[in-house]
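Handout, page 2. Input:
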Amino acid sequence: MSTSMTERWVDRVDPYGYGRQSGLKVSYVAILFFLINAFWMAPTLAVLTMCVAGAGIALIEMPSVNTPKKKDLSYIAFTAMTIVTVSVFGFFRYFTGLEVVAVIGWAYVLYRFAATDTEKAQVVAIALLIGFVSFEGIGASDLGDWLNQTAFYVQFAVVAFVAHKLFPNRYNRIVKAAMRQIWLLQRRQLYQPASQTRTDIAAAFLKHLSVMDQVKALVPQPMGKHMPDLVDALWSYQVWLQKQVQSADQATIEQARANHESWFERIQSSQRDNRDTETLDLPEPLGHLCDVWRGLCQES
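Output:
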């Protein structure tokens, strides 16, 4: 599991890769939807059916949805809420006065009982937005039409859910991205010690560690067992590195820089050659970190 050693523009917009992970998964599900719709045409707007069944795929890739069970339940709950929202909007679309009352009433119900925090309020807003988009589709004029449309929503949702379960586990890439952000943070600490306060460095370091903790339950199990050891090793190395910077001894700092630049090169070399990397010439905290990271890479 190699890691780039240079800072890229994407680090400013998607430092941990959540956006890329979500975009790839949504694209994968969308392609399946288009292929299926070519032979199994929806009775209403195809894009609406895809939005109802597929929007939840993007939502379950939010960082806070950080266990497989949460992802499954969140997708089912959001899709059910969206189907009900579209049904309510569609049922009253032929009654102008009642339509306004129904939309306001249903929005109140969702915000009152489902939007328990800011993140859930945003999810409710997306469900309501899809409801408004449904006005552009063909409305259900009777119970049979409603059942037919709802059946297609459910069928596409089942396809999306199965696709979600079959999607390859790529959460090791988020761990790798967080590790890379820590390495870059420590590199700036060594080369530009005056550019950040100790408080800023500590806050950024803890933020990166929290990302690792969030995906701990999502990475493959063999890799997950190494995550606590990795966090401990990172913490020990950060404490050691801070002491080197504070020493203000130029020779000490130069040696720390050389060691810091070489650690990913050593690990990548061991991965390519499928052999252990010698770490006896490294300081103990960095040598231990290299050993833990290499073991994690071999399990990913």
